[in-house]
Structures are given as structure tokens and as C-alpha cells.
């Protein structure tokens, strides 16, 4: 903060000048703290700290942070408990008691979940999912229609949404969607999700202490769905279930297990797998680890696992909550869209405990949030690869490029409503992040995106709109805590703000290299704020168009005021393609600065004075 104050002073400004008005879009619906952070942008790194604190402490901290950013205030509730009598014949008594407790907590959950959606008819729920898909994928495509039909959406609803896609005026369909979303009781939904996740994890902890398991697979029917306990060996599981419990073995879960779909009568679904190299494969509809008007939990303790879904699975939630936790192993994830920590009107948390993992995605995942969603991917350790793009073309902007919308990204409904909070947090390892258009701590239209990497020598590659960028009244942040890192972008990347946006990139340590073409490296245009801060190391900043990068602002064109751009390097022997020097202040046009500080004594003396 002291260095930021000195950099601003070089332009006769103070930190108060960061707070110029950027909340000018008048959205019909928006998360309040995002509107406040647009005008008070130092709230953005503080929220990054809060997210990192939450994931390093407890599940309860994550739930608290989710509710805070989504503006949810949990209300007290009175549960009319009712115990279901189940004959657990042949089971170990300790396991039977644990299952009794689990079923009882599921009944508690089901008393909360209906109230979350009770104001919505079946027709309205189908309309909401079809509309949500159409905002990000075209429903007139055969594969998207097949997915909606498999999810239980009526064909007449799909036909109506296809007509709306072609309408000149999008307002009627969009405002109707927003009005329906307001009918969801998010307080009860979040409480139901927290209770169900806790029940699954408590049962998993108890199951790991059981030595006397059934010698054959057994199925028990409950009022909420079947409970399958797998015997020794390898299995293929295809049935819908409240719970599948597997002590080990290489198990394949196909389509239905672990898929929570309230439209098809299975709003709660969980998988507990205690070992083995497992496969979680989805079909056209909601897949394992996917939630649609329901709650899904996958808890996998060990093994090198493979997850492959098309739309909505492996940590994807629309109008529901998904929690996928893979504790260990070198895992592979592949999805077309809405997976690996992706949420719209709900919450999705994907957590991996360790191993060198590969995350491959088309778009909308790896910490993605749409309208009022909270989507997080958290990887605790390992040398991981995050790949997003190569499937959906970016036809509106760049021929030959692909949309990613991933790796800590959120998007709203432009002109009408804000998005949510998307976050990718990697706590260690030498990681590779590759995206194309939109990704890596970025956001679009009243949304917030975070990418936080806590350690390792990392490589970041993006083409447009990424690496700490806020685009169109939005806020984005990338923070890297250590290692010799390489950032490669083309346009609007590396601490860039565009059109009343706020973009920030913080790198705390290491010898780092920044490469871009233009509109990057502490760049702000069209009434925005761009900030890049590198705190230590011998760094290099290279841009092909130096007159449009590295601490460059602009005059705002026809707007009443312009932009503010800052590039701060706080240590080391650095190189700048724009001509900035070590221990110097280079003022840049309208209004910007490159501020370099590499020696301690003069600053300490001046600060004391």
C-alpha cells in the first residue's frame, strides 16, 4: 500500500482516486458486493485473501464465504425429523448405525430442499434450465437439445426457447428467467447442501473404520432412493441411487449414480468410494457429480481416477449444489461444459487433495460461475495441467479462436443481470494454465473471477481477456505467491481493465516473465482500472506494441473521464520494453505510470520521514 501510494503520488493522486465511478450499468439483478467493489477496487484483493483463508481452514469456512459473496443470510429453520426404519440385515452393526444416521440426515435435508424450489412449477424449472443453457450454448444444436431432453426438459419448452434465441429483443425471455430465479430460496438451498455434504463426509469417515464388509453387493431401498453397498472386486454401476458405497476395487460409474436431478425424481445422490482406480462417466444428461434442482456429492478417497462428462457433471450445478472431493491420486478430468467447479444459480465445489492431475475442458468450468453462482476448483498439491478451449469457437470476435470461460471466471447476462464468483485456487506445484478467450482470473458483466496459485514455477497462457482482467463492468484478479513464472497473453491480459472494469495481477516472488502484444501489463481503457504488481525478483516485461501496454491508460473517448493504469515492480533488476528504468517513475499517457523500486534504504528513509 505504501508503494501504491507513491506510484499514485507521481500522478498527483491518492488511493481515493482508485474509487472513480464504474457502477453505471443499472443491472436488474446483481450481487451487492460486486457493485461496491467496482467503485472500491481494493476490496478485490481482500476478497482473494478471504477465499484463500476459507479453503485453508474448513468446510464451514467455505460455506460461510460462499454465502457472504452471494449475499445469503441463513434463516433459522425448524425440522420435523422422522426416522425411517430400514432392515440392514447382514450388515456390520457399526456400519448399520452409521447408515441410519446418514438416512436420518438425508430426511432433514429433504425437508429443506423442497422449500428451496417450492414456488417453481415443473414447467418453470424446465424453462429455467433450457434458458440457462441457451445463454451459453445454442439450444438449436442437436447435442444441446439431446442433453436437455435427457435432463427431463419437455420438448415443447425446448422449442419455445429456440424461438426466443432468434428473437430480436432478448429482454422478455431474460427478465422472465430472472424473475423465476428470484423465487428460489437460496438460504434453504445452501443449508440443505451443507447438511448433505456433512452427512456424506461423516459416513465416509465412519466407513473407513469398518473391517467387516459384506462379501457380496447388497441394495437397500429407502424412501429417498436406493443405497448400494458394493462387495469386493471391480464393478459397473448404472442405477440411480441415493448412495453408492464402495470399499475399494476399480469401479465404473455410468451416467446415473452420483447424478442429482430433481426433474427426474432423484434430487439427492452421493457416491463414497474408498479406493481403487475408478471411472466416472456421464451420458447426454446430468452425469456423476452433477446437480440440477438437487444436491450431488462424490467423495473419492484414493486411486488414479478418470472423470468424463459432457454437460453438467464432475462438479457442475445448475439450480443446485455439487461437491466433488477426490482426496488422492493422479486423476484425469474431461468435460465439454459446466464441470470441474461450475455453477449457475447455485454452488459447485471441486476439491482435489493431491497428485499430478489433468483438467481438460471445453468451456464454462475450472472455477466458473454464471448468474448468481459460486463455482470453485481447489487443488491442494501436485504439478497440474489446466486446459480450457478448443471446442466452442469465438465466432463473434476471433475467427479461429475458442471460448474458454474458465480457470476462475464468471459471466453475467449483459444488459440485465450480473454473474457470480468463479475461483480456481491451486495450493502448490509447478502448474500449467492454458486458455484461449476469457480465463485465468477474469470476468464479464458485474461478476468476479479469481485465480490464486500459492507456489511453484507456473506457466500461464491466454489469448484475450485473461490473467487478471475485468471486462465490461466486472472485476478479475490473478495472484501468484511464489516461483519463477511465465505469463503469455495477446490482448487485454495481465492486470487489464476494459469498459468500467477492474483487473489486477499480483506476483509476490520469483524471476518472472510477462509477454503480450497490446492492452496488457497494467493496462486500462474505456474508463477502467488496470493494476499489475510484482513484489520481488528479476523480471522482464515485453510487449510488441509498447504504446498500448505497460501502465497505459486512455482518455475515455466520449465519456466524462478516462482510465487509470499502474505497473509496479517492487524489487530486483528488471527489464521493460517500454523503456522504463530500475528505481524510476515513468509517467505514461492518460493516466498511467510504471513504478520501479529495487533498493530498500531510500524508501525506508523516506517512509520514516
Polypeptide structure, described:
- This protein is α/β, with parallel strands linked by helices.
- It has three domains: 1-71 and 340-609, no CATH class; 73-119 and 184-329, no CATH class; 120-183, no CATH class.
- It is built from eleven helices and 44 strands.
- The strands form four sheets. It has a 16-stranded mixed beta sheet with strand order 1-2-4-7-10-13-16-19-23-27-31-35-39-41-44-43, covered by helices on one side.
- Strand 1 (218-222) and strand 2 (225-230) form a beta hairpin.
Q: Which structural class matches the secondary elements? A: alpha/beta
So what's the overall shape?
A: globular
N- and C-termini, Cα separation: 17 Å
- Strands ordered across the widest β-sheet: 1-2-4-7-10-13-16-19-23-27-31-35-39-41-44-43
Domain count: 3
Outline of this structure?
Helix content is 23%, strand content 31%.
Record keyword descriptors for this entry.
single chain; 609 residues; alpha/beta; 3 domains; 16-stranded mixed β-sheet; globular; disordered C terminus
Amino acid at each position: 500500500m505504501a508503494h501504491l501510494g507513491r506510484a499514485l503520488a507521481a500522478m498527483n493522486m491518492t488511493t481515493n482516486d482508485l474509487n472513480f465511478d464504474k457502477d453505471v450499468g443499472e443491472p436488474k439483478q446483481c450481487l451487492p458486493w460486486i457493485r461496491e467493489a467496482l467503485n472500491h477496487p481494493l476490496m478485490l484483493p481482500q476478497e482473494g485473501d478471504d477465499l484463500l483463508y476459507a479453503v485453508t481452514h474448513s468446510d464451514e469456512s467455505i460455506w460461510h464465504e460462499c454465502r457472504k459473496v452471494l449475499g445469503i443470510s441463513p434463516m433459522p429453520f425448524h425440522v420435523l425429523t422422522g426416522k425411517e426404519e430400514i432392515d440392514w440385515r447382514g450388515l456390520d452393526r457399526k456400519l448399520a448405525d452409521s447408515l441410519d444416521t446418514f438416512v436420518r440426515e438425508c430426511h432433514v435435508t429433504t425437508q429443506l430442499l423442497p422449500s428451496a424450489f417450492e414456488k417453481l412449477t415443473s414447467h418453470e424449472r424446465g424453462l429455467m434450465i433450457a434458458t440457462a443453457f441457451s445463454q451459453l450454448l445454442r439450444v438449436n444444436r442437436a447435442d444441446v437439445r439431446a442433453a436437455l431432453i435427457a435432463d427431463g426438459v419437455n420438448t415443447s419448452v425446448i422449442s419455445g426457447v429456440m424461438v426466443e434465441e432468434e428473437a430480436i429483443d432478448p429482454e422478455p425471455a431474460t427478465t422472465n428467467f430472472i424473475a423465476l430465479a428470484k423465487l428460489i430460496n437460496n438460504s434453504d438451498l445452501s443449508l440443505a447442501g451443507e447438511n448433505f455434504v456433512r452427512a456424506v463426509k461423516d459416513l465416509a469417515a465412519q466407513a473407513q473404520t469398518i473391517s467387516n464388509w459384506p462379501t457380496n453387493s447388497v441394495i437397500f431401498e429407502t424412501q429417498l432412493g436406493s443405497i448400494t453397498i458394493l462387495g469386493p472386486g471391480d464393478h459397473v454401476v448404472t442405477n440411480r441411487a441415493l448412495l453408492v458405497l464402495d470399499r475399494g476395487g476399480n469401479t465404473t460409474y455410468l451416467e446415473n449414480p452420483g447424478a442429482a436431478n430433481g426433474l427426474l425424481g432423484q434430487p439427492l445422490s452421493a457416491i463414497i468410494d474408498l479406493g481403487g482406480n475408478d471411472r466416472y462417466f456421464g451420458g447426454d444428461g446430468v452425469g456423476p457429480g452433477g446437480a440440477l434442482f438437487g444436491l450431488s456429492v462424490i467423495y473419492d478417497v484414493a486411486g488414479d481416477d478418470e472423470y468424463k462428462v459432457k454437460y453438467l457433471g464432475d462438479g457442475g450445478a445448475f439450480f443446485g449444489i455439487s461437491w466433488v472431493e477426490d482426496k488422492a491420486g493422479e486423476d484425469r478430468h474431461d468435460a465439454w461444459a459446466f464441470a470441474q467447479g461450475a455453477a449457475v444459480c447455485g454452488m459447485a465445489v471441486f476439491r482435489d487433495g493431491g497428485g499430478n492431475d489433468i483438467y481438460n475442458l471445453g468451456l464454462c468450468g475450472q472455477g466458473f460461475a454464471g448468474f448468481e453462482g459460486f463455482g470453485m476448483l481447489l487443488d491442494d498439491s501436485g504439478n497440474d495441467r489446466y486446459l480450457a478451449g478448443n471446442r466452442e469457437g469465438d465466432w463473434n470476435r476471433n475467427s479461429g479462436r475458442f471460448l474458454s470461460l474458465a480457470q476462475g471466471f464468471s459471466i453475467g447476462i449483459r444488459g440485465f443481470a450480473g454473474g457470480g464468483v468463479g475461483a480456481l485456487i491451486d495450493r502448490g506445484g509447478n502448474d500449467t494454465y492454458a486458455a484461449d478467450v476469457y480465463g485465468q482470473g477474469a470476468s464479464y458483466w458485474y461478476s468476479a473471477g479469481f485465480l490464486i496459485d500459492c507456489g511453484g514455477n507456473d506457466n500461464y497462457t491466454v489469448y484475450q481477456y485473461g490473467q487478471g482482467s475485468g471486462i465490461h463492468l466486472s472485476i478479475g484478479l490473478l495472484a501468484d505467491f511464489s516461483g519463477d513464472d511465465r505469463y503469455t497473453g495477446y490482448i487485454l491480459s495481465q492486470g487489464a481493465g476494459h469498459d468500467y472494469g477492474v483487473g489486477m495481477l499480483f506476483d509476490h516472488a520469483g524471476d518472472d516473465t510477462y509477454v503480450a502484444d497490446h492492452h496488457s501489463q497494467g493496462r486500462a481503457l474505456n474508463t477502467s482500472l488496470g493494476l499489475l504488481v510484482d513484489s520481488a525478483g528479476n523480471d522482464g516485461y515485453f510487449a510488441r506494441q509498447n504504446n498500448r501496454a505497460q501502465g497505459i491508460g486512455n482518455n475515455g473517448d466520449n465519456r466524462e473521464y478516462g482510465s487509470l493504469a499502474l505497473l509496479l515492480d517492487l524489487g530486483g533488476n528488471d527489464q521493460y520494453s517500454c523503456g522504463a528504468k530500475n528505481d524510476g517513475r515513468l509517467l505514461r499517457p492518460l493516466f498511467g505510470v510504471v513504478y520501479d523500486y529495487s533498493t530498500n534504504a531510500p524508501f525506508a528513509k523516506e517512509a520514516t520521514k
